[in-house]
Fold this sequence. Notes:
Blueprint: H1 9-21, H2 24-36, H3 43-64, H4 70-78, H5 80-112, H6 119-136, H7 138-162, H8 181-194, H9 213-239, H10 249-254, E1 258-259, E2 263-264, H11 267-296, H12 306-320, H13 324-333, H14 335-364
Antiparallel strand pairs: 1-2
Helix pairs in contact: 1-7, 1-9, 1-11, 2-8, 2-9, 3-8, 3-9, 3-14, 4-5, 4-14, 5-6, 5-11, 5-12, 6-11, 6-12, 7-11, 8-14, 11-12
Amino acid sequence: xxxxxxISALQTGFVLYPTVLATGIIxxxxxxxxxxxxxxxxxxxxxxxxxxxxxxxxxxLYKSFPDKTFIQYSEIVAGKFxxxxxxxxxxxxxxxxxGIVIKEYANFVxxxxxxxTPMIIISVIIMVFSAxxxxxxxxxxxxxxxxxxxxxxxxxxxxxxxxxxxxxxxNILPIMENGVMPSxxxxxxLTSWFCELFLISFFLPHLKNNSKGLKWGVYTGIAITVxxxxxxxxxxxxxxxxxxxxxxxxxxxxxxxxxxxFFEHIEAGLLxxxxxxxxxxxxxxxxxxxxxxxxWLNLSDEKLLIFPLGFLQVLFSMWIAKSFQQLSSxxxxxxxxxxxxxxxxxxxxxxxxxxxxxxxVKAGS
Length: 365
């Protein structure tokens, strides 16, 4: 009998927080700023609704199937044949999803540090480290999230608070000059990231205290919302209208820092924070890909799949886009509806079918 893997609800929050935020803190101020302008700081409030809906759907399904993940109970609810199709589609989706993140990471590292190094080498290196963590299992990933959380969170907020001396609050005015729609459109862009909170469905079956899963999922969503509002506010206060055009607004903001002659060029610290968070995100998605494949194939030991799936994810990252501009266009035009479909619409349909089936069974008895 294999030992049941158990993690705490707090550890789940420590993993999900950087998983959602890691790629967002660099890209989101630009993507939301292009749509919402000076109201982009409001956009996370609208987007957070999608995140809370995703968490509630995941938790309601978990209550009906406390020992199973989404891939497993899809077969129970939709039937074996249709459930296998859903599982395979989700396997492709998660491979593509992590391929996007790996591409973002490799593209950014290549453009910032290692432009003489082939991008595939950058991708392979981080995947090797991630594979080692995934091989250790969910408990290792949870402990990594717990250990890395302060190193991700504290420096990020330290950099943001340092920027207070460079802020011009007038840059935020006029608030809602064109009504509420620009900030809501910016929120639509951000839903792609908040929908990722549905990944909690792969952690819920392993919680030590089942009753705390929903609470810490909501707490994590609130923390992410506050962080993104703060990041967008800082970017707007410092850069003003230039934040809509800077390729990496937060990195541009941090480059402003110069206190005396001893505290400057701290963008390397922000990049370290970003790389740390992205490593947690890639590792978490790598685990989800491996778990999905193993459960779809009904394998008891997913470790056999780790390295082949890692190779596939690197291949997906090479096919996704040729440049950051293509990725940005994909984020703005396709990603919101893409993620809403897989993280909210399909799970909601599964939930509704399960509720209807349970009512029919009760009515028949």
